[in-house]
Design goal:
With 121 residues, the protein is mostly helical. It contains five helices and no strands. It has one domain.
């Protein structure tokens, strides 16, 4: 959610705006695919890795060069999105499962990094 919110914030979508699939989410996904982001069909609005990639690309293409992430920060955003995406997807919400402790640690650390740096996203 932080990555998705950060992406729409860069576009100027207000914080109080209710994001709609047809108006906001689907066009963002199509844009991402057009930019070469591998955005899977299933659970498409929930793909953390893809939102991280789209956010990085969107910031890099803004007219103000200061909007682009530094290389190190962009790598951390990407790595966090990728780590979470490797261990979580939205279909897990509908299944009873018990993650290994190392999986919890990896997702927690990636999510914590995003939370700590949310003001910079």
């Amino acid at each position: 959610m932080l990555l998705k919110a950060a992406y729409f914030s860069v576009l100027g979508v207000g914080e109080g705006t209710s994001l709609q699939m047809a108006v906001h989410i689907n066009p963002a996904i199509q844009l991402g695919r057009g930019l070469g982001i591998a955005w899977p069909q299933g659970g498409q609005g929930h793909n953390v890795r893809a939102w991280a990639e789209l956010l990085i690309l969107e910031r890099a293409t803004q007219p103000d060069p200061a909007m682009a992430y530094s290389a190190d920060f962009g790598v951390r955003v990407q790595a966090s999105g990728q780590r979470i995406s490797q261990l979580w997807n939205e279909t897990l919400r509908y299944r009873k499962n018990k993650p290994y402790s190392y999986e919890l640690t990896q997702v927690r650390e990636a999510a914590e990094w995003l939370i700590v740096n949310s003001a910079l996203l």
